[in-house]
Automatic annotation (TrEMBL):
The protein's name in its UniProt record: Glyoxylate/hydroxypyruvate reductase A
Magnesium found in the keyword field: no
Top-rank lineage group of the source organism: Bacteria
Keyword NAD included in the entry's annotation: yes
PANTHER family to which the protein is assigned, alphabetical: 2-HACID_DH_C DOMAIN-CONTAINING PROTEIN, D-ISOMER SPECIFIC 2-HYDROXYACID DEHYDROGENASE NAD-BINDING DOMAIN-CONTAINING PROTEIN
Pfam families on file: 2-Hacid_dh_C
Domain D-isomer specific 2-hydroxyacid dehydrogenase NAD-binding: start-end pairs: 108-277
Length: 312
């Protein structure tokens, strides 16, 4: 008996985005049935959900779901909404790693003042050359060594910056890696630039706080490409005020959009961006999710499955 074709239901935080993703899946997989989630409607009988910040009613309304696919690498926005027994898959990269590596590299260049002096003097019509920076004076710590963090670390290291990496489990790489609580302290204390690429879990929430930042070398710089929940904003602001942090490049916040009266907006050394460091590339996401569904249809394991107990 031939396998029944996949039946998808798409659910995102915005109806217009749900429709757009549904249309993309219909084009990419014309033989599949693709529905859009509408709360309060009868069950569609879907077998796979493709979601981003879905309504929790989805999982009660669609009891036939076999697995859920998240339209992003971070699953903190869905992990608490999905039944614990439901297999959950996340995107692994899907075009985001290169974007986030570029973003982090831009932050490093801002931190070391590679181009800022020239931007300022160009506005005044001045012609003056500065000595090259000494990269050895700007060691970088990358927290999180998944597909995205590893890419960030490799790109920065390839340009001659001393790089160290930290993750929950010890990794092997071409740069020093650390793990555990003591390893975190050692990694950060040997660094002047801190790049956060961690998943948000109960263990990492509020990790970038007064204690951690105090280990960073004086005049340090913070780059956050992960989640706002990693940062204790009051502690980051205190470090900026005291000068222990010389600046920051921040892309994610506990409340988004960032409120107009938030102190980050008024600090010249802080650059705020609207959560754009790594945007899902639709074509790659469609291919990745589609290929994984095809594997599951054949009874084979698929990559990217989330460990609910770990949160990633």
């Amino acid at each position: 008996m031939p396998l029944q074709l996949p039946h998808l239901i798409i659910a995102t935080a915005r109806p217009s985005e749900t429709t757009r993703w549904a249309d993309e899946f219909r084009k990419a997989y014309p033989d599949w049935k693709v529905d859009e989630f509408v709360a309060g409607q009868p069950s569609t009988g879907a077998t796979y959900a493709v979601v981003w910040q879905p309504d929790t009613a989805l999982f009660k309304q669609e009891p036939t779901l076999r697995a859920t696919f998240n339209l992003g690498a971070g699953v903190d926005a869905v992990a608490g909404r999905i039944p614990a027994e439901m297999p959950l898959y996340r995107l692994e990269d899907a075009g985001m790693a290169e974007q986030m590596a570029e973003y982090a590299l831009y932050g490093v260049l801002r931190a070391v003042g590679r181009f800022q002096p020239y931007e300022e003097q160009a506005r005044e019509g001045k012609w003056k050359a500065y000595r090259p920076i000494d990269r050895r004076q700007w060691p970088v710590a990358v927290l999180g060594l998944g597909a995205i963090g590893s890419k960030i670390a490799k790109v920065i290291a390839s340009l001659g910056y001393p790089v160290r990496g930290w993750s929950r489990r010890l990794h092997e790489a071409d740069f020093p890696c650390y793990a555990g609580e003591e390893g975190l302290k050692a990694c950060v204390s040997a660094s002047r630039i801190l790049v956060n690429a961690l998943p948000l879990t109960p263990q990492t929430e509020g990790l970038i706080n007064r204690d951690l930042l105090s280990n960073l070398q004086p005049g340090g710089f913070l780059i956050n490409v992960a989640r706002g929940g990693h940062l204790v904003d009051a502690d980051v602001l205190d470090a900026l005020k005291s000068g222990h942090l010389s600046g920051a490049l921040l892309d994610a916040f506990t409340q988004e959009p960032l409120p107009a009266d938030h102190p980050y907006w008024g600090i010249p050394s802080v650059m705020v961006t609207p959560h754009i460091s790594g945007i899902t590339v639709r074509e790659l996401a469609l291919e990745q999710i589609g290929s994984r569904i095809e594997l599951l249809q054949q009874g084979k394991p698929a990559a990217g499955r989330v460990d609910h107990s770990q949160g990633y």
